[in-house]
Design brief:
single chain, 125 residues, mainly alpha, 4 helices, elongated
């Protein structure tokens, strides 16, 4: 029987695993990284605020493709040439990734836990 994988303690996790960094070794002040954080944060909010690791990975890849598509669209809007096949491939991949995490917004679960309910039950109103 295989041993179950354990989740490392916070001090044993990477900066990405702890949520301090989204990408390794990237200057977080660049315009591209600020846009990346915006898109990723909105995708996480749309998923209800607490995605699984798999959905978080898909959201990161979605943010990357969304930024790439925006940059290509800006090139086109400024009169530049774009590779429509490459753009179409990227937008189709983005659509599939977004479909995997869900295109609809999900409400964040704010239902109190039993412990929170019992703690507040004795509090004066």
């Amino acid at each position: 029987m295989a041993k179950a994988a354990s989740i490392p303690k916070p001090q044993g996790r990477s900066r990405i695993g702890n949520g301090k960094d989204l990408l390794p070794g990237v200057n977080g002040r660049s315009a591209t990284m600020r846009r990346y954080r915006e898109i990723y944060a909105q995708l996480v909010r749309d998923m209800g605020g607490d995605p699984s690791e798999a959905k978080s990975i898909i959201a990161k890849r979605s943010a990357t493709l969304a930024i790439w598509c925006e940059e290509v669209e800006a090139t086109m809007a400024n009169g530049g040439d774009i590779d429509i096949g490459e753009f179409t491939t990227a937008t189709n991949a983005l659509r599939r990734l977004l479909a995997d995490i869900g295109l609809e917004r999900r409400a964040r679960d704010i239902t109190p836990t039993l412990d929170a309910y019992l703690r507040n039950a004795g509090a004066p109103a």
